[in-house]
Amino acid sequence: MADYIAPIQRLIEQFRRLPGVGAKTAARYAFATLNLSEEECCDFADAISGVKRDVHKCPVCHGLSASADGCDICTSPARDSSVVCVVENAKDVMVMERVRGYRGLYHVLGGALSPLDNITPDDLTFDSLISRVEAGGIEEIIIATNPTPSGDTTAAYLARILEKYDVTVSRLAYGIPVGGDIEYADEVTLYRAMEGRRFFNN
After folding, report:
1. Mean predicted confidence (pLDDT) in 152-165
2. CATH annotation of 78-199
3. What band does 178 get if pLDDT is binned at 50, 70 and 90?
4. What is the mean pLDDT of residues 89-101?
5. Which of 195, 190, 140 is nearest to 165 (CA)?
6. What confidence tier does 202 reach under pLDDT thresholds 50, 70, 90?
């Protein structure tokens, strides 16, 4: 038997789908929703629907975009198109944008190589990145995968497949704690990591 009446229990179960949300937190969210006005509830529901309806994958960098034609970063003439920062996930782009000194472009791999999880090069966007390099104009690739075993494996693999191209390949310095995620790094740590990046082919 459910602990709460059916409509509340259903909402609690939906909140529990979110990462890091346990039963008690989900229950607090559900009861907080009851305190919202009908208009606020509609706005909340529309915002959730809008994420699926209005967020697109950028056809160039594979990051998140409000337009199907391309994200604001890829389409901006103010960005330095000769430098591309490669990250694992779309949310990492938003985190890296806190480094105000970086004005290059991005490429989202869609994850990291992990044989144990059956994530192979075919599951990531390596081919798309190579196509961007072959199209010309890119002078440096900054590998900003997470400093984890999977991230390091991905960085080494990417550096190897880029060896035959006339492009400088660098990796973020370990200003970010080993085993940590870029998502949780502060601005100063990210800036120092960017400034102290090391190069594979120099």
Report:
1. 94
2. 3.40.1360.10
3. low
4. 89
5. 140
6. low
Identity of the amino acid at 135? A
- Tell me the whole-structure pTM to 2 decimals: 0.78
For residue 38 the two structure tokens come to: 């009908």
Mean pLDDT of 185-189: 77
Relative to beta strand 104-108, strand 140-143 is: unpaired
Phi-psi region of 58 (alpha: psi -120 to 50; beta: other; left: phi over 0): beta
Tell whether the torsion through CA atoms of 22, 178, 155 and 188 is positive or negative. positive
Q: Spell out the long-range contacts of 181-185 with Cβ–Cβ below 8 A and sequence spacing 24 or more.
A: 181/146, 181/148, 182/87, 182/88, 182/92, 182/95, 182/96, 182/144, 182/146, 183/91, 183/92, 183/95, 185/95
Domain boundaries, the chain: 6-50, 78-199
Q: Which strands, in side-by-side order, build the sheet including 80-87?
A: 104-108, 80-87, 140-143, 168-171, 198-199
Give the C-alpha separation, 163 to 32, whole Å: 54
Exposed/middle/buried for 187, CB within 10 Å: 0-12, 13-18, 19+?
A: exposed
User: Does the domain spanning 6-50 belong to CATH 1.10.8.420?
Assistant: yes
Look-up of token digits 């081919």: 127
Longest dimension (CA), the chain: 65
Quote the pLDDT of residue 181: 78
